[in-house]
Every structure is written in structure tokens, then in C-alpha cells.
Design goal:
Number of strands: 14
Strand order of the largest sheet: 8-9-7-6-12-13-14
Strand content: 15-25%
Order of helices and strands: EHEHEHEHEHHHEHEHEEEEHEHEHEH
Amino acid sequence: MKIKVLVIDDSALVRSLLTEIINENQDMFVIASAPDPIVARELIKLHNPDVLTLDVEMPKMDGLDFLERLMRLRPMPVVMVSTLTERGSDITLRALELGAIDFITKPKLSISNGIMEYADVIADKIRVAAQAKVSRPQFFSTKPMPTSAMQNQVKVQLYSSHSISEKLIVIGASTGGTVAITTFLSEMPSNSPAILIAQHMPAGFTKSFAHRLDTLCRIRVKEAEDGERILPGHAYIAPGDRHLLVTKRGTYYFAQLEDSPLVNRHKPSVDVLFCSAASCVGKNATGVILTGMGKDGSVGMLQMKEAGAYNFAQDEASCVVYGMPKEAVAQGGVHQVANLKDLPKLVLAKSAN
């Protein structure tokens, strides 16, 4: 059965280009297209599509408003089409929280050439969305701001514990990972081990993602910077156009960013992060592989296990796409498979040993 796609975008050019790209693939076709959510609503009833592509900013009804109503009343796989801007990235991240499976970025200039260059990516994201488990949106509240006294207390607690035996948590994720990472990090206490994260995401979105997480979590969350010291109580998100590695100098760990070729078709790559943790952190590392399509992370997780690390994989029931965790399990690098809601306490307990 071919994947039936409904394209929703106020730009006639984008609708035409997406239709052309999708129809060139033998396993999918555009069943209809709509210039706005009002028209789309009737087309959904008429055609019952398998996947929607949805523009973020449209007339008559904002894409987010439409998505929120859709996921509440008739949950279905949605791939957002977003502009690569700061505002666009914030809105897109909100769309993922509301239940969208993934997103495609519109090029700023030369839309026709730019979208055609992304043809394979667009088709892949639609295929993933068609297989994904759709869930109702999760809502996260912002963290209470600590008083100055509390901040000072946390700083003393964090900085005084730094030693060569310090534990690190490394996380890899792809499709569905933004919500899974948010769920995981929101359970981390302010004095948790340092956390390094490789989430498949393009440049321009990871900074907004880190900022969003920082408002929701008790730990500090930021986009990783090359050469910065890795501290407890902090989570570091790999920038969308760089590989993130952990290195060690003396008794301290540091972040290292590399602008090297794609690994497993990704930059940042989970394998790159995990392999660096295997060689640098060894038994003091805890690995976590979350929801996502493909096999990125499976090789690195096995190396971590062989170096003495303890590794967790998210279970199929709680994954949007049970791809990367499944491959890591098959490769033999996973010690324990667990539901997303249980992973934070299990990882903390293992890191404390």
C-alpha cells in the first residue's frame, strides 16, 4: 500500500514542489493539497491520509493551533514544514511537543532548488512518520527559579564533587527524541551527573531546543561549546552541524566539537559521541539510546559496553520509532531495556553506583 500524503501549505510553489518530490517515490503519493487548515480539515475527512505535511505559519488558522486540535481530536502522523529562523525553530519545537513526528526545514533562498536538494530527506521523513506511533501531546511546566541562596548551595554541591571518578551520562536520539529527551531531563535533579546529548537535528534548532529545555529542567541545559569543561548538574546538546565528543584533560572532562563528515548520514552522530565516551570515560559512563529511525549509536554503544559502561535502551512501547534502540539491542550493546518513564530513576541509580 502506498503512503497517502496530504500537503498543507499556503505557498502554491511549495505545495507544487512537495507534490512533485513525493510523487516521484513509488511508495507514496499526494492524495490532495490544501492552502490552509480550513480546507485541510475537509480533505482529511474525505481522503483519510496516512501522513500530513503541515506549514507552521499560514493564514486563517496558525499551524500550531491546527496541530493542537488535530492531535486532540484525531491524532495522526504530521511532518512540520518550518523556516530556518529563530522564531521558526521555537515554533517547530513546540509543534514536536504537541505531537508532530518530525519536521522539514524550508530553505531561506531559492526555495525551488533548495527543496529539490532535500528530496531524499523529505521522502525519508514521510516514510518514518507513516510507521511512527502517534501519541497525544505532553505538556511540560517551566521550572521554578531558585533563590540566590539555593543557587549558591547548588554551585557548592556541584563544583566540590568534581574528580576523575566522576560519572557521565551520554544520550542519543532521533525521531521523537525531542519529547523523549525533555521527559528524561525534566526528572534529573540539580546535582545529577553531567549529560551529553546527540539529537539528530539541523543547525539553527539545537540552540532553541537547549534554551527551551533550560526553562523546563532543574539542571542547566545549553548547546555545547568547543573546549568547555563538562560540569555536573549540566546537560550539553550537540550543535546541529557538529559532532560532539567528550575528552579528558587531567581530572576534568571537556566537550569537543568537530566539523567532520557525516557518520551514519548524521551530524551530530550518536556513534561519534558514544565512541568518544567508550575511549575516554569507560566504566564511569552510562549510555542511553532513545527513540529514532536507523542504527546510529549501535556501534558506539557496544564499544561503551566493552569499555565497562552500563547501557540502557528505550523500549518499543514508549518509542515513537523503535529503530535505534532495536539496533543497539541487536548489536549486543544494551544491558537493560526500559520504558521512558522509568529510565530517569534507573539511570540515576546506576550512575550512583
